[in-house]
Please model this.
Amino acid sequence: MSQSKVTWSAPEIDQTRAMRLALSLLLVLTACSTTPADPVALLQEWRQTAQRQGSVRFDVKIEVEGKDPRRQSYAGVHHVGSGGATTQEDVTAHVENRYRTTDYRWVTVGDDGYLQHSGLTMPPGKTFSSMGLNDAPWVGPYSSDLSMATQDYHPGNLFGDIDRDTVRLTEQDGGRYVFSAGGVPHSGGYANGDVRLVVEVDDENRVVRVEQSGPSPDKQQACLTAVYSQWGTAPDVLRPPQETVAKPKEVLAVQR
Model:
């Protein structure tokens, strides 16, 4: 039995080489296209991922430099329910500005809040005050301050002040992303100046570090650094022992 011999003509060989080259080029282009091109989609994805976790430990620092310098730091744990409402929170804060320096610890468990504050003088043996809104005249103003401060550290506010129309992804190296944007929003629009945002994520695409610098609404230079850990596994917040909690009417508060 004789064996037939297959021969290839020059045009067939050239066509085969061309097909292999095209396939190699396609594989290279596919590998290069894994970086998401839409920065707005990235920011939205990270926010949604954070909301699904349920809890987190946070450490946030804000520094504003200029004619009216100020410092803020917030550290603690935060839990949310299925509807996004805060169910538990324990935050320790330090705030410095030209008017005063304030330290406080704010504990929330369900509908109950407990405050330890440098502006409050507690009765002997007490370290926290409960926070019923109608229990004392000082409670309302202090509660308002606490609510406003939440905007500076609440994990749900991630990237809330980044202008979606001008944000651009300028660098990516593994789980580290660098963005630029055109300004910081305030009541009259956006402050002039560029914002630089650096985001680091873990293997599960959860934000673990944020660095943001740019203009503040009052035309100073602001820098925020936020570190997140224990997504979904942060410990439960415990109520202060009942014997350490004063009633608001027993507390002497600094006038606002």
